[in-house]
């Protein structure tokens, strides 16, 4: 009887304190994430459906959504390509100043976003160092969606590089050498052997850069010019609503951004899960 009872008992975890740590985790996430986000829903519930729709479907608001989401998407897509190239160079090659280049990747993390916005505006303005060279060619960067995209590329690049770099460092080079010895060309080796391993971290870096770009304010507000219907981003419109003491309108706009961002990130996580399963199956 004693042995039967002991056999049915659940095995204890090797690591102690699971219940306490789990409780702290739930409490921490509730206080810092779940409750503040729930407050957006509660505050928006004070609007009637007609008022909510009038607020979020306004032409100016829709234009700001379009600018925020499309520029963030294009910036994350560009960082997906160039972030992979930068990570590849830092991992696979040795060159003078490599450590300096590697440390510069994290500069957008440490640099205040307002400083980045002012610097980019000063350089790409029509009278700036680079802007004055592009102006005769008919290319205008500052105070256009192109300038917003450039700012988001600047702040989003480290997310892709730092998620891809560790995976590249852990890849077994013997597998690549075996593929080459079996007659695979370099491009085919990269496409069939290396790229499948990099798809999950690339999707993660893309999601992080995209999410950061949607909510970015400091580095964008200077270079965008803040022209309604043209270069006005959604976070700036939320700030404008708050300055006008229209808290319900601000939370309504934020709610739409929250739901849209969550659905997009959910889709990216699903694609990442499918990619991981495919890699494991192979």
Would you write up a description of this structure?
The chain is mainly alpha-helical. It has helices spanning 2-8, 18-44, 49-56, 59-92, 98-104, 107-110, 113-124, 131-134, 145-170, 173-181, 186-215, 218-224, 234-243, 247-281. The protein has one domain: MetI-like (MetI-like fold, Orthogonal Bundle). Helix 9 (145-170) runs antiparallel to helix 12 (218-224) and helix 11 (186-215) packs antiparallel against helix 14 (247-281). The longest helix has 35 residues, at 247-281. The protein is globular, with a radius of gyration of 24 Å. The two termini are 47 Å apart. The mean pLDDT is 85. Keywords: Membrane, Sulfate transport, Transmembrane, Transmembrane helix, Transport.
Question: What layout of secondary structure does this protein have?
Answer:
Blueprint: H1 2-8, H2 18-44, H3 49-56, H4 59-92, H5 98-104, H6 107-110, H7 113-124, H8 131-134, H9 145-170, H10 173-181, H11 186-215, H12 218-224, H13 234-243, H14 247-281
Helix pairs in contact: 2-14, 4-9, 4-11, 7-9, 7-12, 9-11, 9-12, 10-11, 11-14, 13-14
Q: Main β-sheet: number of strands, strand sense, barrel status?
A: none
CATH third-level topology = MetI-like fold
Order of helices and strands: HHHHHHHHHHHHHH
Q: Please report the total strand number as a whole number.
A: 0
Provide the number of structural domains: 1
Fraction of helical residues: over 70%
How many whole angstroms does the radius of gyration measure? 24 Å
Beta-strand fraction estimate? under 5%
User: Superfamily at the CATH H level?
Assistant: MetI-like
- State the shape: globular
End-to-end Cα distance, whole Å, is 47 Å
What is the average of the pLDDT values? 85
* Uncertain residue ranges: none
- Work out the helix count: 14
Q: Judging by the overall fold, what is the CATH architecture?
A: Orthogonal Bundle
Per CATH, the class reads: Mainly Alpha
Instruction: Return the structural class.
Output: mainly alpha
């Amino acid at each position: 009887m004693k042995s039967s009872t002991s056999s049915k008992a659940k095995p204890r975890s090797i690591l102690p304190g699971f219940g306490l740590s789990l409780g702290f985790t739930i409490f921490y996430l509730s206080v810092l994430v779940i409750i503040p986000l729930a407050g957006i829903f509660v505050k928006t519930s004070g609007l009637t459906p007609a008022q909510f729709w009038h607020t979020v479907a306004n032409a100016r608001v829709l234009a700001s959504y379009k600018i925020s989401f499309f520029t963030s998407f294009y910036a994350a897509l560009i960082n997906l390509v160039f972030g992979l190239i930068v990570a590849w160079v830092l991992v696979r090659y040795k060159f003078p100043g490599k450590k300096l280049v590697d440390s510069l990747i994290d500069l957008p993390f440490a640099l205040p976003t307002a400083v980045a916005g002012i610097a980019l505006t000063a350089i790409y303005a029509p009278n700036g160092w680079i802007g004055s060279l592009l102006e005769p060619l008919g290319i205008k960067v500052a105070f256009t969606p192109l300038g917003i995209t450039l700012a988001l590329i600047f702040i989003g690049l480290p997310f892709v590089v730092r998620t891809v770099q560790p995976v590249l460092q852990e890849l077994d080079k013997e597998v690549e050498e075996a593929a080459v010895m079996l007659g695979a060309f370099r491009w085919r080796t990269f496409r069939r052997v290396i790229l499948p391993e990099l798809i999950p971290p690339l999707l993660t870096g893309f999601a992080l850069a995209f999410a950061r770009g949607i909510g970015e304010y400091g580095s964008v507000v200077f270079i965008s010019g803040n022209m309604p219907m043209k270069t006005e981003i959604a976070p700036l419109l939320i700030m404008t609503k708050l300055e006008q003491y229209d808290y319900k309108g601000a939370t309504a706009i934020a709610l739409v951004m929250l739901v849209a961002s969550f659905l997009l990130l959910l889709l990216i996580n699903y694609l990442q899960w499918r990619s991981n399963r495919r890699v494991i199956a192979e």
